[in-house]
Fold each of these.
Amino acid sequence: MKARLLAAMLIGMLSGGALVNALLGQQVDRLTLANNELKEELLATERELQQVKENLAGHRPQTITALEVNVTLVQEKEIPGLDQARAHLVIENHVREWLHPLLGQEVSRLDHLLIPRVVDRRQVDVDGRKYVLEVKLVVVSERTMIYLEALPQKNASAPGMSNQ
């Protein structure tokens, strides 16, 4: 009787072990596969991070190196051709002079609203004719561009406008 009981217990343990192995084996296989996938993903992310670090180490801050001024004269037909060319040149020179302190500044640290404030509504005198400047667009990058319109004034001075 003892041998039968011992045999039944041994068969029960073996069949229980086989059943647990079958049930938990699939789960262990899934977890092992998921673990391997996560390891590969981690390696790929670490490689990507290393590339970003290398790029940042060689990255210099973007600074303003040039100013490009584009002037459009309003009521251009009323201004003689040579006066138009002279007005373009004088206005561009004044705007470059006003914005000269921006050269060498880091683009990321610059107050981008500063540029229109410096130029907008300023008056420029070109051979006795006054022009009021109006900023239309500013593109801030290494080569900063400012697009503006110059409106010739019929009066000698406009209220609230500063001269040069």
Amino acid sequence: MRTVGVEEELLLVDPDSGDPKALAAAVLARAAQDDPGQDVFEKELFGQMLEFATHPQSDMAALGDEIVRCRKEAARHAGQIGCGVAALATSPLPVSPALSVNDRYQWLAERFGIPTWEQLVCGCHVHVSVESDEEGVAVLDRLRPWLPVLRAISANSPFWQGRPTGYASYRSRVWNRWPSAGPTEAFGSAERYHRRVADMVATGVILDEAMAYFDARLSARYPTVEIRVADVCLCAETAVLVATLCRALVETAAREWRAGRPAPDPGVSLLRLADWQAARYGLEEDLLDPVAMRPRRAPRVLRSLLEYTGDALTENGDAARAEQAVEELLRTGNGAREQRRLLEHTGSLRDVVTECVRRTQG
């Protein structure tokens, strides 16, 4: 059974006012003091962000438990210095990002200017194990039409700098300002994938292969496919659903490759439109159907994803849980819907943030 690991980026905020706080270095120092040798938490581009990574898991219930445990540990370390953590993909309140002390981050700021300073966004990256780079690239080529559906499921960033954006996942619009971000063409082989990344680095526009910010890519550190489209999810259960679907998609794609079925090729232009549609509306309006690339009601698209990956879900023991999670998500909504509901109820973006802190910390 393929293993799955999750990386989540959390927003550090004042637990009372909801204002983002650039205290990542202090939180990491506290974590190191409390647990010497810990390798769970890391700094990110800005001091208002904290990242954690789970261990590879084959059981989705165990993965969910670890995500919850890591969120609580992050909250505990942050709380010791008067800070809170929120699983929000953008800050609903105005913020001036504080660049973390790091030569790489300084290079990014000097190279790309204002877009770098707009990247205070928190994502969820899912790593799914693959047997080889060749299998991994075959999977990447076949995943592409389904990635916008994962975007819609996870959408959790409707506000930006104190204002509604009109988007369910505005984080994705910000992230795609990087010149190497977004959907890719089909590569066809591991050799072509690595050649393309090497050619990108050779242009001098990006620093290294880690800056190939594709929606899904081969991990440079692990024998995994890294799926990068998801916002950090407000609810840990939604993160587990995304991870479960990612594993099922990887397994289904690998089987199609081994059976000699060609990868679909809707073209990058249509993939970009599908991604925009998912980011704009989340699950509230139509998505573009991954097969036909025509509008289709979001519930039907989610159920078609369950059907497409059904064999893999069943064999992994995930089918019943995934079906239940999808129906619950369609009933209650994703993080974007919940943030908007909180604003409608409270009338205050500060109250939205403080309530999200409470929910993140469990």
